[in-house]
Amino acid sequence: MEMNELYKIRHSAAHLLAHAVTELFPGTILTIGPVTQEGFFYDFLPTRNFTEQDLAAIEQKMREIVKKNLPIEQKEVSKAEARKLFKDNPFKLELINEIPDGKVGLSCQGDFVDLCKGNHVAKTGDIKVFKLLNISGSYWRADKTKQPLQRISGTAFISQEQMDQEEKQKEEALKYDHRKLGQELDLFSFQEEGPGFPFYHPKGQRIFNTCSNYIRGELDADGYEEIQTPIVLLDQLWKQSGHYTHYKPNMYFTQIDDRSFALKPMNCPGCILVYKNRPRSYRELPIKLAEFGKVHRHELSGVLHGLFRVRAFTQDDGHVFCSPDQIEPEVISVLKFAQRIYKKFGFEDVKVVLATRPENAMGSAILWEKATNALKDALKVTNTPYEIHEGDGAFYGPKIELHIKDSMGRSWQVGTIQVDFFMPENFELSFINTEGKKERPVMIHRAIYGSFERFLGVILEHFKGNLPFWLAPVQIKVLPITDAQLPYAKEVVQALKKEHFRVELDVSSDPLPGKIKTAQLERIPWMLVIGNKEAEAHTVTLRYRDGKQEPALTLDALIKKAHENN
Question: Of 39, 72, 198, 434, which residue is 20 to 30 A from 366 by alpha carbon distance?
């Protein structure tokens, strides 16, 4: 109920913003102004470019309109009447022409009228808590080949308390921004020579390897076999899969021996070729193939954002080839698998969203309904609550989106589960059924981390850089008080390395408080302090990141404790 109310307020605030802009800057052409996860925005074609200094005046005008407490009325008119009303606005005319019904919705407040389906507050006076945030560039319908526009973004809340809480959360998020942590902890970087392409440093690669090794063990136990497919494949393959038609602007192409190839934006077609390499029998199904595949997608430079939006990333992809009657148990299996993986990282609050057929969908509506119902049935059997996001599915199938909530209360969409009837059709996949006849398999696409890069960014911010012992790039740092304890300290390091722990020895000449401070800045979970007493007794003093200590631990006891935490 509250979320719907918040949507209404933010939706109404977007119209309020457009109303204020038209009063302050006559001649400005309005385009669209949707609600977003953070608030709302409106895209304009102004007579002159807005500046940051204009925001205060626009916000003040919005508040004046709020004080007038104008009723917000929703009505319907014919397309012909709507075209007359917006005859000087090519953007609105384009939208009107695309409306399938004969009627067009309008939202009216005072003299201001805009295209809208409705779902507003009753009057402008109900929009009490809002603020404008920034001005940025955009394009009509997010297409860089179309008209450049200016976007004004803002946010609105039901109460001032909610806005204050959001502001506090944002401040905390900035403090623990993964880009800042990545630099401080020497995990990764971005270079001018590869914009949007992350460079992993040794410690960052250790986290990457730890995440991949953990899920690899779970994959093996769950019946998956790992494969690897090429990064560059003939572009005819992408035409056959449908990616060329639906995804071409986001793909990179190259010429090899006078033939056109593409860097893969997805792993699915390569996996399909592995399946298709030999005849398959019903006895083999389900066939579960996993791949840690590097994919490349062209993103506009303006949307690149640390590890959250990059041009090359690794997906923990999995593709399950099964018979139609195996869909439900396999989707259930993936759901349970995902929840088990997230729990290891401390994410137990997993929200599920069902994304349905988009506008650019391939294939028949009948198969889409069949695939969507298969996902719904699996969610029903597992008593999993879910939301439906209409039109947010992939072009080749509906999907379950898995959202995790971090320590700052933010929700992140990470994993996906998709049922796909279409690619098996496009590639004429088959298996020999119990009657000895060819039958079409179904593909289930699934990723748990989604993008390794994005997941790494999420967990860095979730743990605020203080990664748990099992995940930390350096788990243990050995701190000899003086050089006299170095020989024993090296023995401790070697013993821990033999047990496959990630350990470092501080050989600096800093006094002990300086060594402890350095280890704390590096977010090391365990510090082993070794003085004369420890060296003589062949023990260590274990100091935790929070300052708690356990003195006189034998090496055997320490190793046992470390394994229990790994």
Answer: 434
Determine contact, residues 152/39, Cβ cutoff 8 Å.
Answer: no
Domains along the chain? 2-166 (3.30.980.10), 178-462 (3.30.930.10), 476-565 (3.40.50.800)
Beta strands in 455-538 (DSSP E): 476-480, 503-505, 526-530
Q: Element (H or E) spanning 531, and its range?
A: none
Predicted model pTM: 0.81
What span, in angstroms and rounded, lies between the C-alpha atoms of 46 and 138? Answer: 13
Q: Is the pLDDT of residue 377 over 50?
A: yes
Instruction: Give the tokens for residue 469.
Output: 């012992």
For residues 558 and 542, is the Cβ–Cβ distance under 8 A? yes
Catalytic residue positions, numbered: 268, 297, 315, 317, 319, 399, 445
Residue 478 CA, distance from chain mean position: 37
Q: How many Å from the N-terminal Cα to the C-terminal Cα in the chain?
A: 43
- Orientation angle between helical segments 327-344 and 365-381, nearest 10 degrees: 60
Q: Which two tokens stand for residue 251?
A: 């793909």
| Helix intervals (H) in 222-364 | 235-241, 243-247, 268-276, 327-344
Q: In sequence order, which ranges of 255-324 are alpha helices (DSSP H)?
A: 268-276
Report d(CA 287, CA 143) in Å as an integer: 39
Distance of CA 421 to the CA centre of its chain: 25
User: Cα separation of 184 and 178, whole Å?
Assistant: 10
pLDDT in the model for residue 2: 46
DSSP-assigned letter for residue 194: S
Q: Rg (Cα) of the chain, in Å, rounded?
A: 28
